[in-house]
Amino acid sequence: MKKVLFASTALIATAGVAAADSGVNFSGYGRFGIGYQEDRVGAVTNIVTPSNTATSATSVVVDTDDAILVSRFRLNIDGFTETDGGVRFEGRVRLQADEDSSTGEANSAGLNGARFSVIYGGLRVDAGNVAGSFDNLANYYGNEVGLELFAGQYSGVNYNFLAYSSTGSGANAVFFQYAVGDFAFGASYDTRTFAVNGSEVSGDRWDVSATYTFNNITAAVAYGQTDSGVSGVSDPSLTVLTLGGEWGDFGGTLFVADDATEVTATDGTAWGLSASYNLGAATTLLFTYGDGNADADLQQVAIGAIYDLGGGASLRGGIGVNDCDICDSQTVADFGAQFNF
Amino acid sequence: MKKVLFASTALIATAGVAAADSGVNFSGYGRFGIGYQEDRVGAVTNIVTPSNTATSATSVVVDTDDAILVSRFRLNIDGFTETDGGVRFEGRVRLQADEDSSTGEANSAGLNGARFSVIYGGLRVDAGNVAGSFDNLANYYGNEVGLELFAGQYSGVNYNFLAYSSTGSGANAVFFQYAVGDFAFGASYDTRTFAVNGSEVSGDRWDVSATYTFNNITAAVAYGQTDSGVSGVSDPSLTVLTLGGEWGDFGGTLFVADDATEVTATDGTAWGLSASYNLGAATTLLFTYGDGNADADLQQVAIGAIYDLGGGASLRGGIGVNDCDICDSQTVADFGAQFNF
Amino acid sequence: MKKVLFASTALIATAGVAAADSGVNFSGYGRFGIGYQEDRVGAVTNIVTPSNTATSATSVVVDTDDAILVSRFRLNIDGFTETDGGVRFEGRVRLQADEDSSTGEANSAGLNGARFSVIYGGLRVDAGNVAGSFDNLANYYGNEVGLELFAGQYSGVNYNFLAYSSTGSGANAVFFQYAVGDFAFGASYDTRTFAVNGSEVSGDRWDVSATYTFNNITAAVAYGQTDSGVSGVSDPSLTVLTLGGEWGDFGGTLFVADDATEVTATDGTAWGLSASYNLGAATTLLFTYGDGNADADLQQVAIGAIYDLGGGASLRGGIGVNDCDICDSQTVADFGAQFNF
Question: Which top-rank group of organisms is this from (chains A, B, C) (predicted)?
Fold first, then answer.
């Protein structure tokens, strides 16, 4: 019995193999390190004395360690084929394990909901557990900071848009994307049925986006809305405008959003920016800032760095502060290694 | 870091690689499309007003969308090796994600119970989550119709035979199969312990089959029985006879069964037939009909088509009616794409 | 569409492919056979008559079959890369399915918690779901007996040391190992927070080990301790000394431990030994014995054999007796096939 080795070099060594027309791709990354979160709390086993046996009794929320071992293992499983006419079909399921960030213990790996894609030229249609127009929007996330990407320019946004779920089943929706020249358009639709006082109502949500790239700058705008399903309650909506550009070693993004979730404490304008700077051959510095005008909008400010080790591995870390007008501020930080495979 | 590409063309390009003696195979398919089911119902979240927050409250069964996004992602994971003596060992676990057909939402992917196989010449022994003699019987399923194979000639059968479970743990049973010349024989045994009034009883089930192929026709017969475990209650049983043949572009199957499940509403004779016809190079037309003589036996009639796109991808769809003597009839239909990998 | 075949021979055929620098490895084994356990009990469905329908009612513990179909499917999924500086990063998740040993039914496959590794020269650091110093200790397990490895020399040990979990999330801990010449050192640390009467306490555990190899003999010693977290309760601890050697066809191990778990019925000295003997080219005979001086310490005596079929497949079996000073003795045995892939 010989060991099975499925590795990139092996296949690249078979020169002349330009493209496979059907098969299964495996890719992903691992990351692990130390994560610090001020005043971390979590639910742990509670033992009531005088019983001195360690039998699990009940659960209680207590202060857990501020610094814990954080980690993620992500494996993308992509089945694909290409028709005689050049249409590509893909199906993806993701296998992912994360630590339990409240207690610092480990979680078992899990599988998410499947996403299916049809790709032909500049047209792409996704179905199932899909990302919508916001989740796919150029520069929506900007330069997130830290091994765990714990801070981003979008922190003031509270609208629940259609997003790809890495650890759950996600929505069962459809996303369209069409790219032509410097323009790209996106749209998604997600049906949902729920009940109010026992009668079914529709809580469908949809979003659209447009993106334009000119020289080294990309501008994007997106709008999305969710049927509230309840008479007299306005439909929650979100409008986002982003700008991103690169000038040599410097990259930056700007973010403005109007958040109408029908919740006063978080509605209104959200804004943010982020920047990256390549310091020498292997080091990248990162900065991000996000905020909103409502009392409970989360403000995030963070700086971080990535040091490239080659081979798809890097050291990453960051430090930042989470705050809001009516919150206590909280310091967060992390440091560790990430490796792609 | 280079991307990992595990693909068929790459390995086929390494000429002279006839057979691997140990390793892991990945194969499967994705399918997605629109599924229609008249009067579809499902359990959804129920919100009680005047609370106008969208907090999940209780669950209630309501009418959901008749037309939903249907999908499946299936990946077979097969570990295998071959001994010096030419005996092949295999172990399979299946990873599968399906939509929730009651609500139209997505489900996360899951893993099923493992199946183990020993294969030597015409002899095959399966253990674990196995398919029994019916599930393996030639022409039992015939030509099922639709993207989701929603109709089949076996619709009047209600006996719970040993079947491979794609999404659950399945039974922990043994299946034997022996092929010699034009004949093939199968047998399975599945042990089960349960309790009646606190005392353990055996609810074992077994089945046997014989198959004979002459020219382009295959005839098969199978019988199976389950210990009821309760004194005075007869053992449920099932007898099935199938015939299948191919004549050029036409293929057809016949199905007759005697269903003795000790439930009057579904017992008695079940019958069905199915047909397929290749219309030109890429299109296949399908028809299936299944019925039974008991009041609650499900009658299914459906027509469908498959259009081959090449590369293992196809467009598929069907429309049919489900009915029974004491039921309201229900129209079902679907259409979508399937791609193998 | 061509079938995807990921197999060792294929890649070995591409001569000159010495080492891949990034990718995903799949490896594992399957095993299945008959397992016998005297007086096996399990929780099964209980039906209360006069209802004669097979509707699941409640669960009750009854005698189940002593001889059941046992099985395991194990797949290791290893993502890896190597930096320009020669540091190797690895992440592993294991997919495993086992039978339910109490009822003889099958379980679905599951995924465990992820383990991450950094390897450079003789240094290895593991994080996440790791094995600690005992679980990694040379000759700790010795020659375990049977298809299911149902008996081992360590049977008298009751300390709950840090171990790799194949079917659960495991601990979220760190393990260090350093090998230099004939010496190797190991250490692990596992943080845990729980609560006593609602207040958080630390139940951290740690262990250290040292191993020395001289000629064909390996000696190893390890010590580990767990914070009890409760004032007035001593910290449970374990000390282990092992010796192992090989002389031609004969291999043997010795095991002594001091078990201080603060539970009188199982504390004290534990000891054991094991042996293996290669009888001809394909057969290996195995023997193991483990015991302890406390009343409830488990004594295990077992003999077994492995017959190599080539290609990574083998037939394996064993028979043994479990006993303790205050227990009824129990005969256990198994026989079946195992195949690596």
Answer: Bacteria
What are the backbone angles phi and psi of residue C39, rounded to the nearest 5°? 55, 45
Which has the closest alpha carbon to A337: A93, A80, A34, A58?
Answer: A34
- Per-residue confidence (pLDDT) for residue A8, from 0 to 100: 33
For residue A186, the Cα-to-chain-centroid distance in whole angstroms is 18
10 Å Cβ neighbour count for B58?
11
Chain A closest-CA separation from residue C48 CA (Å):
32
Q: Where are the domains of chain A?
A: 17-39+70-340
Tell me which of C108, C111, C307 to substitute to probe the interface with B (most B C-beta atoms closer than 10 Å).
C108
Provide the token pair at B262.
Answer: 């000790």
Do B30 and A127 touch, CB atoms closer than 8 A? no
Q: Which two tokens stand for residue B289?
A: 């009909």
pLDDT digits (tens, 9 = 90+) for C318-340: 999 999 999 999 999 999 999 99
Closest-CA residue in chain A for C200? Answer: A62
Q: Please state the ipTM of this predicted complex.
A: 0.90
- Going from the C-alpha of C340 to that of each of A272, B92, B193, the distances in angstroms are 54, 13, 32
- Please write the tens of the pLDDT for every residue from C148-199: 999 999 999 999 999 999 999 999 999 999 999 999 999 999 999 998 888 8
Give the span between the Cα atoms of B320 and B291, in whole angstroms. 13
Give the architecture (CATH level 2) of A17-39+70-340. Answer: Beta Barrel (2.40)
Query: Which residues are bridge partners to A138 per DSSP?
Result: none
List beta partners, residue A333. A36, A319
Find chain C residues with C-beta within 8 A of B169's C-beta.
105-108
